[in-house]
């Protein structure tokens, strides 16, 4: 499109009741620097001058189709930009097709997600301090397990039907039974993200889970450190901390992975960082086992759970299988190869920024020479 990107806005007020903006959560300087060779980024829409007058340019709001192809942006969106000067794409969740027949665009997605989008230093420091404190407490077990819950206040579901098709989150007791079947004992230190479950939902009673695994932590239970955020910090910043703690944990288990961007992105990010151990339970297959147990057919259920879980993927490299999300598994597009046949697939040199800088400097020198 050859268009300029205005610093994104976060749609946070409806769910988080939080007025935090992109500037409050992300390291904007790093965001702009990392993408400077991909797209020009400005802090706000510039003013325009016409006939000696200066006025603000108002962006024209348009709704992109869900999973729109690249051609939609190069045609429809581009026509709107030419007509109005600026466009405002909202909402923008899942507004670009995940399977794109352009490896470089897919790699750009990973540069944005895993390199350009970094939380502000105070959030990163808080997350690091929490992980260090958790590790210092985990003397008897040498790992930290990050566990993501999903909170859907006010939502009502037909529990049994959705459970049988794998469309209902694992409840705390089920998570405890899974972990115990896999060999985790009651010394395991577990970090909960977010710290609140289904408020008031009888299914989400945590006492059985707490009895099996008493060492439960969240960002509120970990003692404050020098870089910690204040407790009155708004919700989005603490969610960013939860994300980072789960990213840095030794093992991560999502209790639900759709449509939660939190779990999807975490699984993809952990894969990208070096195939960190991520355990994604097959909720549909597990439902039948747990129903048998609840109906009195409990014989051998633990072995059935164990066999099912140890046949699952643990975060290693594997190609996506539809409908798996690109954000959950960006293999192989975003992974370079040391001995690749194609230059496009080879790993870049360690000093990639320096190489690019020198290339751009050479181009500028050529332009100056031609001009002279």
Automatic annotation (TrEMBL):
<dbReference type="Pfam" id="PF10250">
    <property type="entry name" value="O-FucT"/>
</dbReference>
<dbReference type="GO" id="GO:0005768">
    <property type="term" value="C:endosome"/>
</dbReference>
<protein>
    <recommendedName>
        <fullName>O-fucosyltransferase family protein</fullName>
    </recommendedName>
</protein>
<keyword id="KW-0808">Transferase</keyword>
<keyword id="KW-0472">Membrane</keyword>
<keyword id="KW-0119">Carbohydrate metabolism</keyword>
<keyword id="KW-0812">Transmembrane</keyword>
<dbReference type="GO" id="GO:0016757">
    <property type="term" value="F:glycosyltransferase activity"/>
</dbReference>
<keyword id="KW-0294">Fucose metabolism</keyword>
<keyword id="KW-0735">Signal-anchor</keyword>
<dbReference type="GO" id="GO:0006004">
    <property type="term" value="P:fucose metabolic process"/>
</dbReference>
<keyword id="KW-0328">Glycosyltransferase</keyword>
<keyword id="KW-1133">Transmembrane helix</keyword>
<dbReference type="GO" id="GO:0016020">
    <property type="term" value="C:membrane"/>
</dbReference>
<dbReference type="GO" id="GO:0005802">
    <property type="term" value="C:trans-Golgi network"/>
</dbReference>
<dbReference type="InterPro" id="IPR019378">
    <property type="entry name" value="GDP-Fuc_O-FucTrfase"/>
</dbReference>
<comment type="pathway">
    <text>Glycan metabolism.</text>
</comment>
<comment type="similarity">
    <text>Belongs to the glycosyltransferase GT106 family.</text>
</comment>
<dbReference type="InterPro" id="IPR024709">
    <property type="entry name" value="FucosylTrfase_pln"/>
</dbReference>
<keyword id="KW-0325">Glycoprotein</keyword>
């Amino acid at each position: 499109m050859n268009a300029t990107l205005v610093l994104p806005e976060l749609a946070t007020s409806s769910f988080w009741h939080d007025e935090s903006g992109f500037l409050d959560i992300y390291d904007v300087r790093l965001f702009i620097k990392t993408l400077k060779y991909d797209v020009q980024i400005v802090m706000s829409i510039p003013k325009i001058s016409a006939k000696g007058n200066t006025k603000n340019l108002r962006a024209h709001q348009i709704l992109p189709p869900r999973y729109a192809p690249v051609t939609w942006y190069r045609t429809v969106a581009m026509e709107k930009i030419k007509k109005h000067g600026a466009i405002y794409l909202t909402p923008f969740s899942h507004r670009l097709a995940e399977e794109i027949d352009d490896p470089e665009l897919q790699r750009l997605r990973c540069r944005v997600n895993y390199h350009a989008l970094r939380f502000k230093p105070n959030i990163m420091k808080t997350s690091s301090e929490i992980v260090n404190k958790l590790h210092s407490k985990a003397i008897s077990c040498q790992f930290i397990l990050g566990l993501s819950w999903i909170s859907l206040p006010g939502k009502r579901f037909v529990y049994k039907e959705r459970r049988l098709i794998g469309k209902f989150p694992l409840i705390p007791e089920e998570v405890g039974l899974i972990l115990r079947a896999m060999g985790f004992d009651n010394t395991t230190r577990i970090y909960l993200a977010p710290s609140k479950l289904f408020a008031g939902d009888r299914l989400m009673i945590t006492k059985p889970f707490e009895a099996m695994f008493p060492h439960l932590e969240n960002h509120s239970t970990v003692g404050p450190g020098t870089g910690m955020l204040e407790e009155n910090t708004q919700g989005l910043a603490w969610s960013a901390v939860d994300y980072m703690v789960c990213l840095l944990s030794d093992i991560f288990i999502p209790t639900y992975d759709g449509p939660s961007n939190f779990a999807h992105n975490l699984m993809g990010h952990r894969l990208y960082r070096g195939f960190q151990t991520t355990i994604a339970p097959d909720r549909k297959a597990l439902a039948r086992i747990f129903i048998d147990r609840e109906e009195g057919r409990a014989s051998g259920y633990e072995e059935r759970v164990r066999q099912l879980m140890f046949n699952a993927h643990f975060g290693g490299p594997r190609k996506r299988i539809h409908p798996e999300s690109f954000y959950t598994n960006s293999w192989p597009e975003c992974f370079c190869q040391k001995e690749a046949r194609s230059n496009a697939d080879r790993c870049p040199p360690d000093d990639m920024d320096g190489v690019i800088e020198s290339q751009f400097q050479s181009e500028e020198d050529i332009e100056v020479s031609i001009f002279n």
